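ERR on first pass: missing label on line 2. Operator R.T. fixed the label and resubmitted. Corrected input:
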Amino acid sequence: MQQTATIDPISAAQGEFERMMARNIKGLNYFTSPAPVVGATPREVLIERGPMRLNHYRPMTDEVYRVPILLVMATTNRGFIFDMVPGQSLVEFLLRAGFDVFMLEWEAPRSHERSLTLESYVLDFLPAAVARVREETGEPDVSMVGYCFGGVLSLLYAALHPAQGLANLVTFTTPIDFSRMDLFSAWSDPRFFDVDRLVDTFGNVPGDMLYASFDMLRPAARTAANMRLYDNLWDDEYVKSFRMFERWNTDTLPLAGEYFRQTTKKLMWDNSLYKGTMTVGGRAIDLGGITVPFLHLAAEHDHIVPREASAPLLGMIGSPDKQEIMLKGGHVSLVAGGNAIKRMWPALANWLAERSI
Amino acid sequence: MTSNPSDPAAFFRDMLGHWEKAVNNFGGDALKSEEFVRGMSAATAATANMQANTHQVMERVLAAANLPSRADFDDLARRVAGIEATLARIEAKLGSGGPDPAKPRPSRSRKPPSKAS
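pass 2 clean. output:
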Protein backbone atom coordinates (compact mmCIF):
# COMPACT_ATOMS: atom_id res chain seq x y z
CA MET A 1 0.00 0.00 0.00
CA GLN A 2 1.36 3.40 -0.92
CA GLN A 3 2.02 5.84 1.89
CA THR A 4 -0.09 8.94 1.52
CA ALA A 5 0.76 10.79 4.74
CA THR A 6 1.21 14.50 4.28
CA ILE A 7 4.40 15.99 5.59
CA ASP A 8 4.14 19.12 7.66
CA PRO A 9 7.67 20.56 7.65
CA ILE A 10 6.90 23.00 10.47
CA SER A 11 5.66 20.38 12.92
CA ALA A 12 8.45 17.96 11.87
CA ALA A 13 11.07 20.63 12.54
CA GLN A 14 9.36 21.50 15.82
CA GLY A 15 9.47 17.83 16.86
CA GLU A 16 13.14 17.58 16.00
CA PHE A 17 13.87 20.78 17.94
CA GLU A 18 12.11 19.37 21.00
CA ARG A 19 14.14 16.20 20.74
CA MET A 20 17.32 18.22 20.47
CA MET A 21 16.45 20.08 23.67
CA ALA A 22 15.60 16.81 25.43
CA ARG A 23 18.93 15.34 24.23
CA ASN A 24 20.84 18.21 25.83
CA ILE A 25 19.02 17.98 29.15
CA LYS A 26 19.09 14.19 29.32
CA GLY A 27 22.65 14.10 28.06
CA LEU A 28 23.62 15.92 31.23
CA ASN A 29 21.68 13.32 33.23
CA TYR A 30 23.57 10.57 31.44
CA PHE A 31 26.88 11.75 32.82
CA THR A 32 25.61 12.59 36.30
CA SER A 33 23.41 9.58 37.08
CA PRO A 34 24.49 6.06 38.01
CA ALA A 35 24.02 3.17 35.58
CA PRO A 36 20.94 0.96 36.14
CA VAL A 37 21.33 -1.69 38.84
CA VAL A 38 21.71 -5.06 37.15
CA GLY A 39 21.61 -8.63 38.43
CA ALA A 40 19.19 -7.73 41.22
CA THR A 41 16.96 -10.83 41.26
CA PRO A 42 17.08 -12.20 44.84
CA ARG A 43 19.60 -15.01 45.12
CA GLU A 44 21.83 -16.92 47.43
CA VAL A 45 25.48 -17.64 46.66
CA LEU A 46 26.01 -21.36 47.22
CA ILE A 47 29.65 -21.68 46.18
CA GLU A 48 32.31 -18.99 46.08
CA ARG A 49 35.61 -20.59 45.21
CA GLY A 50 38.38 -19.18 43.00
CA PRO A 51 36.69 -17.57 39.98
CA MET A 52 33.61 -19.74 40.43
CA ARG A 53 30.27 -18.42 41.77
CA LEU A 54 27.20 -20.60 42.00
CA ASN A 55 23.98 -18.67 42.57
CA HIS A 56 20.57 -20.00 43.47
CA TYR A 57 17.68 -17.68 42.62
CA ARG A 58 14.69 -17.55 44.90
CA PRO A 59 11.75 -19.39 43.26
CA MET A 60 8.83 -17.14 42.28
CA THR A 61 6.11 -19.78 42.07
CA ASP A 62 4.65 -22.20 44.61
CA GLU A 63 5.09 -25.12 42.25
CA VAL A 64 8.21 -25.62 40.11
CA TYR A 65 9.24 -28.13 37.47
CA ARG A 66 11.03 -31.14 38.91
CA VAL A 67 14.28 -30.60 37.01
CA PRO A 68 16.28 -27.50 38.01
CA ILE A 69 18.12 -25.34 35.46
CA LEU A 70 21.84 -24.57 35.72
CA LEU A 71 22.87 -21.63 33.53
CA VAL A 72 26.58 -21.70 32.65
CA MET A 73 28.04 -18.34 31.71
CA ALA A 74 30.89 -17.78 29.26
CA THR A 75 34.23 -17.31 31.01
CA THR A 76 34.89 -13.96 29.32
CA ASN A 77 31.85 -12.07 30.58
CA ARG A 78 29.71 -11.38 33.63
CA GLY A 79 26.59 -13.42 34.26
CA PHE A 80 24.24 -10.46 34.58
CA ILE A 81 23.48 -10.66 30.86
CA PHE A 82 21.00 -13.32 32.05
CA ASP A 83 19.65 -11.03 34.75
CA MET A 84 19.62 -7.43 33.58
CA VAL A 85 16.72 -5.60 35.27
CA PRO A 86 13.20 -6.68 36.24
CA GLY A 87 11.21 -7.26 33.07
CA GLN A 88 14.40 -7.79 31.06
CA SER A 89 15.85 -10.76 32.88
CA LEU A 90 16.00 -14.30 31.54
CA VAL A 91 16.43 -15.54 35.11
CA GLU A 92 13.26 -13.75 36.21
CA PHE A 93 11.40 -15.03 33.13
CA LEU A 94 12.36 -18.64 33.90
CA LEU A 95 11.47 -18.21 37.59
CA ARG A 96 8.04 -16.86 36.68
CA ALA A 97 7.60 -19.72 34.20
CA GLY A 98 8.01 -22.12 37.12
CA PHE A 99 11.64 -23.21 36.96
CA ASP A 100 14.13 -23.54 39.80
CA VAL A 101 17.12 -21.57 38.49
CA PHE A 102 20.82 -21.71 39.36
CA MET A 103 23.64 -19.86 37.62
CA LEU A 104 27.32 -20.67 37.41
CA GLU A 105 29.14 -17.42 36.70
CA TRP A 106 32.73 -16.27 36.92
CA GLU A 107 34.84 -13.66 38.63
CA ALA A 108 38.18 -12.49 37.29
CA PRO A 109 40.86 -15.08 38.11
CA ARG A 110 43.40 -13.65 40.51
CA SER A 111 47.08 -13.48 39.75
CA HIS A 112 47.92 -16.77 41.46
CA GLU A 113 45.06 -18.49 39.61
CA ARG A 114 46.90 -18.23 36.30
CA SER A 115 47.51 -21.99 36.52
CA LEU A 116 43.80 -22.85 36.21
CA THR A 117 43.24 -25.05 33.18
CA LEU A 118 40.42 -26.34 31.04
CA GLU A 119 40.45 -29.35 33.39
CA SER A 120 39.82 -27.01 36.34
CA TYR A 121 36.63 -25.82 34.69
CA VAL A 122 35.36 -29.10 33.17
CA LEU A 123 36.47 -31.58 35.81
CA ASP A 124 36.23 -29.44 38.94
CA PHE A 125 34.04 -26.32 38.75
CA LEU A 126 31.20 -27.74 36.64
CA PRO A 127 30.93 -31.08 38.52
CA ALA A 128 31.04 -29.19 41.85
CA ALA A 129 28.20 -26.94 40.67
CA VAL A 130 26.08 -29.86 39.46
CA ALA A 131 26.66 -31.76 42.72
CA ARG A 132 25.63 -28.71 44.76
CA VAL A 133 22.48 -28.19 42.67
CA ARG A 134 21.54 -31.83 43.14
CA GLU A 135 22.15 -31.57 46.89
CA GLU A 136 20.18 -28.33 47.14
CA THR A 137 17.17 -29.60 45.19
CA GLY A 138 17.25 -33.26 46.15
CA GLU A 139 16.78 -34.08 42.48
CA PRO A 140 19.06 -36.53 40.68
CA ASP A 141 19.36 -34.53 37.46
CA VAL A 142 19.63 -30.97 36.13
CA SER A 143 19.22 -29.16 32.83
CA MET A 144 22.46 -27.46 31.83
CA VAL A 145 22.20 -24.30 29.71
CA GLY A 146 25.50 -22.87 28.41
CA TYR A 147 26.09 -19.59 26.63
CA CYS A 148 28.88 -19.17 24.06
CA PHE A 149 32.04 -20.63 25.65
CA GLY A 150 29.88 -21.67 28.58
CA GLY A 151 28.24 -23.87 25.95
CA VAL A 152 31.60 -25.37 25.01
CA LEU A 153 32.31 -26.12 28.68
CA SER A 154 28.84 -27.67 29.01
CA LEU A 155 29.46 -29.87 25.96
CA LEU A 156 32.80 -31.03 27.38
CA TYR A 157 31.18 -31.74 30.74
CA ALA A 158 28.30 -33.64 29.14
CA ALA A 159 30.67 -35.71 27.00
CA LEU A 160 32.77 -36.67 30.02
CA HIS A 161 29.94 -37.24 32.50
CA PRO A 162 27.28 -39.05 30.47
CA ALA A 163 25.68 -40.73 33.45
CA GLN A 164 26.02 -38.02 36.05
CA GLY A 165 22.76 -36.27 36.49
CA LEU A 166 22.20 -34.41 33.25
CA ALA A 167 18.55 -34.31 32.18
CA ASN A 168 18.84 -31.87 29.25
CA LEU A 169 21.57 -29.88 27.55
CA VAL A 170 20.99 -26.51 25.91
CA THR A 171 23.65 -24.36 24.26
CA PHE A 172 23.35 -20.82 22.93
CA THR A 173 25.59 -19.55 20.10
CA THR A 174 28.20 -22.19 20.77
CA PRO A 175 31.12 -22.61 18.37
CA ILE A 176 32.31 -26.06 17.34
CA ASP A 177 34.30 -25.46 14.14
CA PHE A 178 36.75 -22.82 15.31
CA SER A 179 38.37 -22.54 11.88
CA ARG A 180 35.18 -20.80 10.73
CA MET A 181 35.56 -17.99 13.26
CA ASP A 182 37.43 -16.09 10.60
CA LEU A 183 38.83 -13.12 12.47
CA PHE A 184 39.75 -14.93 15.70
CA SER A 185 41.27 -17.67 13.59
CA ALA A 186 43.37 -15.14 11.63
CA TRP A 187 44.47 -13.29 14.76
CA SER A 188 45.59 -16.45 16.50
CA ASP A 189 47.51 -17.72 13.47
CA PRO A 190 50.35 -19.79 15.02
CA ARG A 191 52.83 -18.36 12.49
CA PHE A 192 52.49 -14.96 14.16
CA PHE A 193 50.68 -15.28 17.47
CA ASP A 194 53.00 -16.39 20.27
CA VAL A 195 50.53 -17.54 22.93
CA ASP A 196 53.31 -18.93 25.12
CA ARG A 197 55.07 -15.60 25.29
CA LEU A 198 51.81 -13.81 26.06
CA VAL A 199 50.81 -16.15 28.88
CA ASP A 200 54.32 -16.49 30.29
CA THR A 201 54.60 -12.70 30.47
CA PHE A 202 51.15 -11.62 31.60
CA GLY A 203 50.09 -14.65 33.62
CA ASN A 204 46.37 -14.10 33.14
CA VAL A 205 45.32 -12.67 29.79
CA PRO A 206 44.10 -9.10 30.49
CA GLY A 207 40.41 -8.37 30.04
CA ASP A 208 41.26 -5.20 28.12
CA MET A 209 43.07 -7.24 25.52
CA LEU A 210 40.10 -9.56 25.09
CA TYR A 211 37.70 -6.62 24.98
CA ALA A 212 39.76 -4.98 22.23
CA SER A 213 39.60 -8.23 20.22
CA PHE A 214 35.82 -8.43 20.53
CA ASP A 215 35.56 -4.74 19.66
CA MET A 216 37.65 -5.14 16.51
CA LEU A 217 35.26 -7.74 15.12
CA ARG A 218 33.05 -4.84 14.07
CA PRO A 219 35.30 -1.83 13.75
CA ALA A 220 32.53 0.71 13.13
CA ALA A 221 30.13 -0.55 15.77
CA ARG A 222 31.35 1.59 18.66
CA THR A 223 31.26 4.86 16.72
CA ALA A 224 27.85 4.06 15.25
CA ALA A 225 26.51 3.03 18.68
CA ASN A 226 27.64 6.32 20.21
CA MET A 227 26.04 8.31 17.38
CA ARG A 228 22.80 6.37 17.86
CA LEU A 229 23.01 7.02 21.58
CA TYR A 230 23.23 10.76 20.94
CA ASP A 231 20.32 10.53 18.51
CA ASN A 232 18.23 8.69 21.11
CA LEU A 233 19.28 10.55 24.25
CA TRP A 234 15.73 11.87 24.56
CA ASP A 235 14.43 8.28 24.92
CA ASP A 236 14.86 7.06 28.53
CA GLU A 237 14.27 3.40 27.67
CA TYR A 238 16.86 3.45 24.89
CA VAL A 239 19.43 5.09 27.16
CA LYS A 240 18.75 2.63 29.97
CA SER A 241 19.13 -0.33 27.63
CA PHE A 242 22.30 1.14 26.07
CA ARG A 243 23.89 1.59 29.48
CA MET A 244 23.11 -1.97 30.56
CA PHE A 245 24.56 -3.53 27.44
CA GLU A 246 27.51 -1.14 27.37
CA ARG A 247 28.35 -2.02 30.95
CA TRP A 248 28.19 -5.72 30.17
CA ASN A 249 30.27 -5.36 27.00
CA THR A 250 33.04 -3.37 28.58
CA ASP A 251 33.25 -5.56 31.68
CA THR A 252 35.22 -8.28 29.91
CA LEU A 253 36.92 -10.64 32.34
CA PRO A 254 40.56 -11.68 32.15
CA LEU A 255 41.19 -15.34 31.41
CA ALA A 256 43.41 -17.66 33.42
CA GLY A 257 46.69 -17.97 31.52
CA GLU A 258 46.94 -21.75 31.22
CA TYR A 259 43.27 -22.02 30.31
CA PHE A 260 43.81 -19.46 27.53
CA ARG A 261 46.94 -21.27 26.33
CA GLN A 262 45.07 -24.59 26.16
CA THR A 263 41.98 -23.22 24.44
CA THR A 264 44.13 -21.38 21.89
CA LYS A 265 46.20 -24.45 21.06
CA LYS A 266 43.49 -27.11 21.25
CA LEU A 267 40.57 -25.21 19.79
CA MET A 268 41.91 -22.35 17.67
CA TRP A 269 45.05 -24.04 16.33
CA ASP A 270 44.11 -27.73 16.24
CA ASN A 271 40.33 -27.30 15.94
CA SER A 272 40.29 -30.52 17.92
CA LEU A 273 36.69 -30.42 19.13
CA TYR A 274 35.47 -30.39 15.54
CA LYS A 275 38.02 -32.97 14.40
CA GLY A 276 37.16 -35.32 17.26
CA THR A 277 40.68 -35.30 18.71
CA MET A 278 39.95 -33.17 21.77
CA THR A 279 41.01 -34.44 25.18
CA VAL A 280 40.42 -33.02 28.65
CA GLY A 281 42.50 -34.42 31.47
CA GLY A 282 43.70 -37.14 29.11
CA ARG A 283 40.15 -38.29 28.37
CA ALA A 284 38.84 -38.21 24.82
CA ILE A 285 35.81 -36.06 24.06
CA ASP A 286 33.14 -37.75 21.98
CA LEU A 287 30.16 -35.51 21.38
CA GLY A 288 28.38 -38.51 19.89
CA GLY A 289 28.27 -39.86 23.44
CA ILE A 290 25.89 -37.06 24.50
CA THR A 291 22.52 -38.77 24.47
CA VAL A 292 20.41 -36.47 26.65
CA PRO A 293 17.85 -34.20 24.91
CA PHE A 294 19.79 -31.40 23.25
CA LEU A 295 18.82 -27.94 21.99
CA HIS A 296 21.05 -25.43 20.25
CA LEU A 297 19.88 -21.85 19.83
CA ALA A 298 21.72 -19.93 17.15
CA ALA A 299 21.51 -16.30 16.02
CA GLU A 300 21.14 -15.33 12.38
CA HIS A 301 23.46 -12.34 12.62
CA ASP A 302 26.05 -13.56 15.12
CA HIS A 303 29.30 -11.66 14.51
CA ILE A 304 31.24 -13.46 17.27
CA VAL A 305 30.24 -17.05 16.52
CA PRO A 306 29.30 -17.01 12.82
CA ARG A 307 26.72 -19.49 11.65
CA GLU A 308 29.36 -21.63 9.93
CA ALA A 309 31.19 -22.09 13.25
CA SER A 310 28.19 -23.53 15.08
CA ALA A 311 26.37 -25.27 12.19
CA PRO A 312 28.05 -28.72 12.52
CA LEU A 313 27.22 -29.00 16.23
CA LEU A 314 23.79 -30.58 15.94
CA GLY A 315 25.03 -33.33 13.64
CA MET A 316 27.81 -34.27 16.06
CA ILE A 317 25.54 -34.79 19.08
CA GLY A 318 24.49 -38.39 19.63
CA SER A 319 21.09 -37.72 21.16
CA PRO A 320 17.99 -38.94 19.28
CA ASP A 321 16.09 -35.95 20.73
CA LYS A 322 17.99 -32.97 19.36
CA GLN A 323 16.96 -29.73 17.79
CA GLU A 324 18.37 -26.45 16.58
CA ILE A 325 16.42 -23.22 16.50
CA MET A 326 17.70 -20.34 14.44
CA LEU A 327 16.45 -16.98 15.68
CA LYS A 328 16.75 -13.42 14.49
CA GLY A 329 19.31 -11.36 16.32
CA GLY A 330 22.99 -11.24 17.13
CA HIS A 331 25.28 -12.90 19.63
CA VAL A 332 24.06 -10.78 22.54
CA SER A 333 20.56 -9.80 21.41
CA LEU A 334 19.73 -13.50 21.17
CA VAL A 335 19.86 -13.82 24.96
CA ALA A 336 18.92 -10.34 26.20
CA GLY A 337 16.86 -7.37 25.03
CA GLY A 338 13.58 -6.96 23.21
CA ASN A 339 14.11 -9.71 20.61
CA ALA A 340 15.13 -12.24 23.23
CA ILE A 341 12.03 -11.55 25.32
CA LYS A 342 9.78 -12.14 22.30
CA ARG A 343 11.60 -15.03 20.66
CA MET A 344 14.29 -16.88 22.54
CA TRP A 345 13.02 -16.96 26.11
CA PRO A 346 9.61 -18.48 25.28
CA ALA A 347 11.24 -21.00 22.91
CA LEU A 348 13.69 -22.05 25.63
CA ALA A 349 11.05 -22.24 28.37
CA ASN A 350 8.69 -24.30 26.20
CA TRP A 351 11.41 -26.76 25.15
CA LEU A 352 12.62 -27.20 28.73
CA ALA A 353 9.13 -27.45 30.25
CA GLU A 354 8.31 -30.51 28.15
CA ARG A 355 11.48 -32.20 29.39
CA SER A 356 11.56 -31.10 33.02
CA ILE A 357 8.88 -33.25 34.62
CA MET B 1 15.29 4.01 0.60
CA THR B 2 13.76 3.45 4.00
CA SER B 3 13.70 7.02 5.30
CA ASN B 4 10.55 8.19 6.99
CA PRO B 5 9.60 11.33 5.01
CA SER B 6 8.12 13.00 8.10
CA ASP B 7 11.39 12.75 10.02
CA PRO B 8 14.11 15.20 8.93
CA ALA B 9 16.86 13.14 10.59
CA ALA B 10 15.82 9.81 9.06
CA PHE B 11 18.13 10.24 6.07
CA PHE B 12 21.15 10.55 8.36
CA ARG B 13 20.08 7.50 10.33
CA ASP B 14 19.90 5.47 7.14
CA MET B 15 23.29 6.75 6.08
CA LEU B 16 24.74 5.83 9.46
CA GLY B 17 23.49 2.27 9.00
CA HIS B 18 25.00 2.06 5.51
CA TRP B 19 28.29 3.55 6.70
CA GLU B 20 28.50 1.11 9.61
CA LYS B 21 27.86 -1.87 7.36
CA ALA B 22 30.40 -0.74 4.77
CA VAL B 23 33.13 -0.04 7.33
CA ASN B 24 32.52 -3.33 9.15
CA ASN B 25 32.74 -5.27 5.88
CA PHE B 26 35.83 -3.45 4.67
CA GLY B 27 37.43 -3.46 8.12
CA GLY B 28 36.70 -7.17 8.57
CA ASP B 29 38.58 -8.00 5.38
CA ALA B 30 41.47 -5.71 6.25
CA LEU B 31 41.75 -7.00 9.81
CA LYS B 32 42.16 -10.60 8.74
CA SER B 33 44.87 -9.82 6.19
CA GLU B 34 48.27 -11.34 6.86
CA GLU B 35 49.87 -7.90 7.04
CA PHE B 36 47.53 -6.75 9.78
CA VAL B 37 47.87 -9.97 11.75
CA ARG B 38 51.66 -9.75 11.52
CA GLY B 39 51.52 -6.13 12.78
CA MET B 40 49.10 -6.98 15.56
CA SER B 41 51.26 -9.87 16.74
CA ALA B 42 54.35 -7.65 16.67
CA ALA B 43 52.54 -5.04 18.77
CA THR B 44 51.45 -7.72 21.26
CA ALA B 45 55.01 -9.04 21.45
CA ALA B 46 56.34 -5.50 22.02
CA THR B 47 53.80 -4.97 24.83
CA ALA B 48 54.81 -8.30 26.36
CA ASN B 49 58.49 -7.36 26.21
CA MET B 50 57.80 -4.01 27.81
CA GLN B 51 55.80 -5.70 30.55
CA ALA B 52 58.55 -8.24 31.16
CA ASN B 53 61.20 -5.51 31.38
CA THR B 54 59.09 -3.40 33.73
CA HIS B 55 58.49 -6.47 35.84
CA GLN B 56 62.21 -7.18 36.13
CA VAL B 57 63.02 -3.60 37.07
CA MET B 58 60.25 -3.48 39.67
CA GLU B 59 61.42 -6.78 41.18
CA ARG B 60 64.89 -5.28 41.67
CA VAL B 61 63.51 -2.05 43.10
CA LEU B 62 61.29 -3.89 45.58
CA ALA B 63 64.12 -6.25 46.55
CA ALA B 64 66.42 -3.25 47.14
CA ALA B 65 63.78 -1.58 49.30
CA ASN B 66 63.24 -4.85 51.19
CA LEU B 67 59.56 -4.91 50.17
CA PRO B 68 57.53 -7.95 49.12
CA SER B 69 57.17 -8.43 45.40
CA ARG B 70 54.16 -9.54 43.35
CA ALA B 71 55.54 -13.06 43.40
CA ASP B 72 55.65 -12.99 47.22
CA PHE B 73 52.00 -11.91 47.34
CA ASP B 74 51.11 -14.64 44.85
CA ASP B 75 52.81 -17.20 47.09
CA LEU B 76 50.82 -15.93 50.06
CA ALA B 77 47.58 -16.00 48.05
CA ARG B 78 48.35 -19.59 47.00
CA ARG B 79 48.89 -20.59 50.64
CA VAL B 80 45.61 -18.92 51.68
CA ALA B 81 43.84 -20.71 48.82
CA GLY B 82 45.36 -23.98 50.05
CA ILE B 83 44.02 -23.32 53.56
CA GLU B 84 40.60 -22.50 52.09
CA ALA B 85 40.63 -25.74 50.14
CA THR B 86 41.57 -27.69 53.28
CA LEU B 87 38.73 -26.02 55.17
CA ALA B 88 36.33 -26.87 52.35
CA ARG B 89 37.41 -30.53 52.53
CA ILE B 90 36.94 -30.58 56.32
CA GLU B 91 33.54 -28.90 55.92
CA ALA B 92 32.55 -31.47 53.30
CA LYS B 93 33.59 -34.34 55.61
CA LEU B 94 31.62 -32.87 58.46
CA GLY B 95 28.67 -32.61 56.10
CA SER B 96 27.16 -29.38 54.85
CA GLY B 97 23.94 -30.29 56.63
CA GLY B 98 22.16 -30.39 53.28
CA PRO B 99 19.73 -27.78 52.15
CA ASP B 100 18.69 -25.12 54.64
CA PRO B 101 15.35 -26.30 56.16
CA ALA B 102 14.28 -22.68 56.71
CA LYS B 103 14.29 -21.94 52.98
CA PRO B 104 10.96 -22.02 51.16
CA ARG B 105 10.63 -25.27 49.21
CA PRO B 106 8.14 -25.11 46.37
CA SER B 107 6.71 -28.45 45.34
CA ARG B 108 8.46 -29.91 42.31
CA SER B 109 5.37 -31.22 40.57
CA ARG B 110 4.71 -28.56 37.95
CA LYS B 111 3.55 -29.79 34.54
CA PRO B 112 3.89 -28.00 31.20
CA PRO B 113 0.66 -26.35 30.01
CA SER B 114 0.20 -28.99 27.29
CA LYS B 115 0.23 -31.82 29.88
CA ALA B 116 -1.59 -30.09 32.73
CA SER B 117 -5.27 -30.89 32.81
